[in-house]
Amino acid sequence: MSNKNNRKRAIGALLACTGALSTTACSQQAKPQSSEKRSIVSYDEINKEYKDSVAQLTWPDSYTPPEALEGEDTKLTFQTGYGDTRASLLFECAWEKEWLSNYATDTHRANKAIEHLSNVPNMGYMSPQRSDDATRRFFKDYLERAKLGDPSGFQENIDNNCP
């Protein structure tokens, strides 16, 4: 009977600790994740953001990015950062396709693609404010596989996420 009472006490203590920790965790005010100011803007403003990002990025010779955002309703509003994210995703996809086209035949072009893709984790669209941990982890894994000559990660990303 003593063993049964000890179990009840242990479970009760565990529940009390869990409750106390939960209350503390829930009562803390969330800190802002970024000093980057977000706002809602028109299609024209987000399209300008997209065009500015496209102009700042280096693209493979075999790829020309769209001149403007494609497939968006021009009457909608957008959160700032969306245009940059779309341009950056096209950048990632273009360089992954470049690597896939060349890794077995042209090491210079494949290495150039890896060099550009190595910058992706530092780009705004991969920041914790705009991308989740899993996305960043998957990209890192795909990049490491490609550096070892394994195309499966980039191919999976292109099949699932690229236009």
Distance, first to last CA: 67 Å
Biggest sheet: strand arrangement: 1-2
Number of strands: 2
Structural class: mainly alpha
Radius of gyration: 23 Å
Helix and strand arrangement:
Blueprint lengths: L1 H26 L12 E3 H14 L20 E3 L2 H21 L4 H11 L15 H15 L4 H10 L2
Antiparallel strand pairs: 1-2
Helix pairs in contact: 2-3, 3-4, 3-6, 5-6
Task: Write a concise keyword list for the protein shown above.
163 residues; mainly alpha; two-stranded antiparallel sheet; 2 strands; 4% strand; signal; Lipoprotein
What does this 3D model show about the protein?
By secondary structure, this protein is mainly alpha-helical. It folds into 2 domains: 1-30; 40-161, no CATH class. It has 6 helices and 2 strands. Strands 1-2 form a two-stranded antiparallel ribbon. Helix 2 runs parallel beside helix 3, helix 3 runs antiparallel to helix 4 (107-117) and helix 3 crosses helix 6. 20% of the residues are buried.
Summed up:
60% of the residues lie in helices and 4% in strands. It is mostly helical and 163 residues long.
